[in-house]
Design goal:
By secondary structure, the chain is α/β, with parallel strands linked by helices. The chain is built from 10 helices and 13 strands. It has a domain of 216 residues: NAD(P)-binding Rossmann-like Domain (Rossmann fold, 3-Layer(aba) Sandwich). It is 39% helix and 18% strand. Helix 1 crosses helix 7, helix 4 packs parallel to helix 5 and helix 8 packs across helix 10. The two termini are 37 Å apart.
């Protein structure tokens, strides 16, 4: 079986991807596994093929067997933090990604699938397709992801790497990150604490269940190896059915059989009012369309939370 190498392997999507691919490929994963990151350490205890390491190091140089496909999911995540500490986002999402593509070039790793974000899109766009405006991001997180896209496209053209970037739209589900709204909502609702909803509830997100994301990546692993050397493609991956964050919170509360306590607040300046994915390009490319409705996805996530929430 081909070796698949995953960065950010103990992250939310990296963990779910490894569990989904087990037995189908030889897997190896790397993660920083910072001591203060409870969630990644919790997830890593449920993984077989993960090493602690930094993607800013020469992590590919030391491998005897080089991966056929590298899936780059390691990142500094979340929009809010990029307003407070943008340097961390530059170091991880730009500098470390540069180190990664340099190592791909130097070690003959020809196929790269990497995580981008819907945050690369400019504001005031009703539906976002891959050719929608990305000239001005609201957050530095979005800018760091856009910078990575530009770097990788250049490396593909100049050095013969073949890459696919995935613009994720609000991925959620079991093993979600504690800093994401979903976990905060579940935790606060369970403990009868208030949750914060922005813009009087008029914020919409195209919530995409993690099961659809990992299925798509699995299909892309085979698809990318049939692409010409040097090709670079970008794909949205989203359900294509945005709902308000207020409705999302009420769904969570309903499954938890609780009444949410809601505080309304102004929308932060670096947050989009709405995201809405047009994923037709991806659907045509891999003959797969995300199908998990919010009601089903939230139910799955809440059931996980009841049994395995991070302690």
């Amino acid at each position: 079986m081909s070796l698949i190498y995953i960065t950010g392997g103990a992250g939310f999507i990296g963990f779910q991807l490894q569990k989904h691919l087990e037995g189908k490929y030889d897997l190896m994963a790397i993660d920083l596994l910072a001591k203060n990151n409870v969630a990644t350490n919790y997830r890593s205890r449920n993984l077989n093929n993960i090493i602690q390491g930094d993607i800013k190091s020469s992590f590919l140089d030391v491998l005897k067997e080089k991966p056929k496909v590298l899936i780059h999911l390691a990142a500094e995540t979340g929009i809010a933090g990029s307003l407070v500490n943008p340097s961390k986002y530059f170091e991880t999402n730009v500098q470390a990604t540069f180190n990664l593509i340099e190592q791909c070039k130097n070690n003959g790793v020809k196929y790269l699938i990497y995580a981008s974000s819907s945050s690369v899109y400019s504001s005031n766009q009703e539906i976002m397709s891959e050719d929608s405006n990305t000239s001005k991001q609201l957050s530095f997180y979005g800018t760091s992801k856009k910078m990575s896209e530009v770097m990788i496209e250049n490396y593909c053209a100049q050095f013969g790497i073949t890459a696919i970037g995935l613009r994720f739209f609000t991925v959620y589900g079991s093993w979600t990150r504690p800093d994401m709204a979903a976990y905060k909502f579940m935790n606060n609702i369970e403990n009868n604490k208030p949750i914060t909803i922005y813009n009087q509830g008029n914020v919409y997100r195209d919530f995409t269940h993690v099961s659809d994301v990992v299925k798509a990546i699995e299909l892309l692993i085979e698809k990318i190896q049939n692409e010409p050397i040097g090709a670079h493609q970008l794909f949205n991956i989203g359900l294509g059915a945005p709902i308000s964050v207020l409705q999302y919170a009420h769904l969570i509360a309903d499954y938890m059989k609780k009444e949410p306590i809601i505080n309304f607040a102004s929308l932060p300046i670096n947050e989009l009012v709405s995201t809405y994915s047009n994923s037709c390009k991806l659907e045509q490319y891999i003959q797969f369309k995300p199908t998990c409705k919010a009601e089903d996805g939230v139910n799955e996530m809440v059931e996980w939370f009841k049994k395995y929430k991070y302690e």
